[in-house]
Design brief:
The chain is mainly beta and about 425 residues long. The chain contains one helix and 34 strands. The strands form seven sheets. It has an eight-stranded mixed β-sheet, with no helix packed on it. Strands 31-9-34-33-32 form a five-stranded antiparallel β-sheet, with no helix packed on it. Strand 20 and strand 21 form a beta hairpin. About 40% of the residues are buried.
Length: about 425
């Protein structure tokens, strides 16, 4: 009994003497920066401990260059980014409590063009397949978008499991309903005869929709997570099957062969102007270029390590950049690649070098980077998991904004 009593007294004495850890923290600490990317003149918020609430007593240096402090509290500073070259820039904060650092902000290269977003179909968060005109029409979960031979836009509406068309006057019409329980229509493509090929990712089916007759033809079954369909230069169809870690080739008659194996799991593919297959990866955090024969692969974007913040690489070097889930890749007439980065909620642009090599090109985030919904310009645009992206012409893009349930139009100036 005495032993128990002594133990309790000892623990009480220890607790009484022990001060909370936070009470001993009196030095200045820099904890986070938001956003992690920006341009000179942008507003940035620094979060930390023991800043001075008196604005003039805080000195913020970006690579040694003073920043203007607009607002101050003991845990938050709002600053204006000073001029700096593109790339990582160290942050230092000085005040009466000391000096803190250890964080960086990534300065972005200003895009060569202006990107303006507008919503043409759907209403944010209104998840429903409803035909109509413009924003009176609703989508469930738009994933892929293509330019039809007649110039109209066709998109797959996953969840609603429908193939839908947007006319020039923005009238939305449902063309086909898969009518299969648990189906999940993903991105497709047109063949030379105007038929539309697409996948049911959930049920592992490759379809061909024939608009002349309205028939939906099953081409192949038993696929594991087929993600999209593209037609190669010889009229064959390539299908990346994420969970099988393989890209299959199908002839127009439906004969199947292995085009290439992708160890990281192919999550989306597109064909570049040189005939190479560009493959996004499910958990490889990179883009691959696969030669037209399927025998040679190389990394063209991403450092292969999962990142928690968008980063365009050291001075735009694509092999040092961070990339996440990608379900949209498209090219303009100059070979510029546009990429939908779903987890970073951004549209990114990869320009090849003078020899057409993307690995030696320049990566820029040109739209988005913050989850949400906002039309507008450049990085002020907000997406919620963008997927399919279409280069309609060199001045117009269309983006499937999946979780916002929208089709967005991007005008390039």
């Amino acid at each position: 009994m005495k032993r128990i009593l002594y133990t309790l007294l000892f623990l009480l004495a220890l607790t009484a003497c022990k001060e909370p850890y936070s009470a001993r923290i009196t030095d200045l600490r820099l904890v986070s920066v938001d956003p992690r990317n920006g341009y000179p003149g942008d507003l940035v918020t620094l979060i930390g401990w023991n800043f001075s609430p008196i604005q003039e007593q805080n000195e913020v240096l970006l690579d040694g260059v003073p920043a203007i402090v607009l607002e101050a509290s003991s845990s938050r500073l709002q600053i204006v980014l000073p001029e700096h070259r593109p790339g990582p820039c160290p942050i230092t904060v000085k005040g009466p409590a000391g000096e803190g650092g250890g964080l960086e902000i990534n300065y972005l290269k200003r895009p060569d063009h202006e990107y303006m977003a507008s919503t043409i179909v759907g209403q944010q968060g209104q998840r429903k397949c409803q035909d109509g005109v413009g924003t009176e029409a609703l989508t469930y979960m738009p994933t892929g978008i293509n330019k039809a031979p007649d110039g109209t836009l066709w998109f797959t509406d996953r969840g609603g499991n429908k193939l839908r068309r947007i006319a020039a006057d923005l009238t939305v019409t449902t063309l086909m309903d898969a009518q299969i329980p648990g189906a999940a229509l993903w991105q497709g493509c047109f063949d030379g005869e105007g038929n539309y090929w697409c996948n049911d990712k959930a049920n592992g089916i490759l379809y061909r929709y024939e608009p002349a007759s309205g028939r939906l033809v099953t081409v192949a079954t038993g696929l594991k997570s087929p993600m999209n369909v593209v037609m190669d230069g010889e009229g064959n169809f390539l299908v990346p099957c994420r969970d099988e870690k393989v890209i299959y080739k199908f002839t127009p008659q439906g004969q199947k062969s292995v085009f290439a194996e992708v160890a990281e799991g192919p999550s989306f593919i597109a064909i570049d102007p040189h005939g190479n297959v560009i493959s996004a990866t499910h958990n490889g955090y990179c883009l691959l270029s696969i030669d037209p024969t399927g025998t040679s692969q190389s990394v063209i974007l991403g450092d292969g390590v999962k990142g928690d913040a968008l980063f365009d690489g050291v001075n735009g070097d694509p092999l040092t950049a961070k990339i996440t889930s990608c379900h949209g890749i498209a090219f303009d007439s100059k070979g510029v690649m546009y990429i939908s980065d779903a987890s970073f909620h951004a549209i990114r642009q990869l320009k090849p070098d003078a020899y057409g090599n993307y690995a030696n090109g320049m990566l820029e985030t040109v739209m988005g980077g913050v989850k949400g919904y906002t039309d507008g310009k450049g990085l002020n645009i907000k997406f919620n998991e963008p997927a399919g992206i279409l280069v309609y012409d060199d001045n117009t893009l269309y983006v499937c904004d999946v979780q916002n349930c929208l089709i967005r139009k991007i005008t390039i100036k």
